[in-house]
Structures are given as C-alpha cells and as structure tokens.
Request: fold
Amino acid sequence: MAPLAVAPGVTHWPGYLDAAEQVSLVDELREIARQAPFFTPRMPKTGKPFSVKMTNCGALGWVSDESGYRYQPDHPETGAPWPAMPARLLRAWEELAAYPHPPQACLINFYEPTARMGLHQDRDEQDFSAPVLSLSLGDTAVFRIGGTVRGGRTISLKLASGDALAFGGEARLAYHGIDRILAGSSSLLPQAGRINLTLRRVTKPSG
Ligand code: MD6
Ligand code: FE
Reply:
C-alpha cells in the first residue's frame, strides 16, 4: 500500500510486511529471544519496572535501569553480545529509511495486552539526522504522536501487524507513545500481545 504522510516527518506504510514475511520474522525473533532473553527494563533513578519487556538485535542495544538510558553492545543480564539483525530488517531500512548508512540497533518491545508506553522522545542517539523506523507485529496498537514539546496537540494512529512507521526530519524528536493494545486483533502470535521493532542509527557515521 502507498505510504501515508501522517505529519511532517512521519510516514506510515500500512501492511508493509506481507503475511508470510510476518510469520518468518516472528520465527527469527523467537530465535533471537532464545539467545537474548526478554528483560524488564527499569526507570532511571526510581527503578520502577516498565510494563513492556525488551530485548535487542544488532551491534548495539537500548537498555534502561537505575543508572539511566543507554546503548550497549551486550545484554544487561547475560552479558552476551546482541544477536545479528535479520536480513529482512536491514532491507526494510534500505527501502524506507532514506539514510545512507545501515542501522546499528534494533530494539524489540513486547507488549502484553495490558502494557503501554508513556509519551517519550527517542533522544539517546548521537545522530538525529537518521530516522527511527518501526515495524509492528501482532495485535494492533493505538499509537499517539505530538510535537517536540510536551503537552502540545497529539494525534492518534492505529498500528497493525505488518505496518511500518518512520519518524524523521522535524518529527525525529516528536513525543510519542502507546495508549493501548487491542487484544485479539491479530492471530500472528500464539498469545495476545504485540511486538514492536525500532531500528536506529546510534552513532554519527565516521568519514
Ligand atoms: C511502539 N514505538 O510502537 C513504540 N519510537 O511500540 C516507539 O517508541 C517509536 O514507533 C520512535 C519511532 C517510532 C516508534
Ligand atoms: Fe520511541
């Protein structure tokens, strides 16, 4: 389906991954989660647990605990390097990101039906000239996006299984979050829930 311009810098590709691609990506993610188990991130300072579980693939992974948000090359609990990024994800970046260097990190979020993600900015990267590219699998999510200041007007968008969403340009630092998951809206995953993948460039390319 043709991309939809949601807002300046925000592009939505409904059904970017077809049904067979979604199934094979879930198989690859299952293997990734075997090597790099989902962990429960904690809020900086307070240590309050997130409702979302996370793991990563690629050279760097995003983690959060009492010491803060950061990218690191190893799993926070096992110490092992993150598994490689599946080829289909690298291809999605090439096709949609309009950025000449490959992604370095893919954050994998798992939402149980009751999980949510508060409004936040993605700003732990050094390179904001690259977009963040997200892919959704499983149950539909109600996604909210606003501007670059907290408390402004927001719009709501449904992200279904197979959808891609890119945040770049003037939207790169837009506030966004997940209000809720529509449990049972997809039969891709064996249990109700949603997986979201966000591909990012972390460091500025050298040379
Ligand atoms: C989610 N997504 O869809 C959460 N961040 O579960 C994000 O936080 C996100 O979709 C940056 C760019 C695109 C996103
Ligand atoms: Fe985000």
Observations:
- The first strand starts at residue 4 and ends at 7.
- The mean pLDDT is 96.
- The longest helix spans residues 19-35.
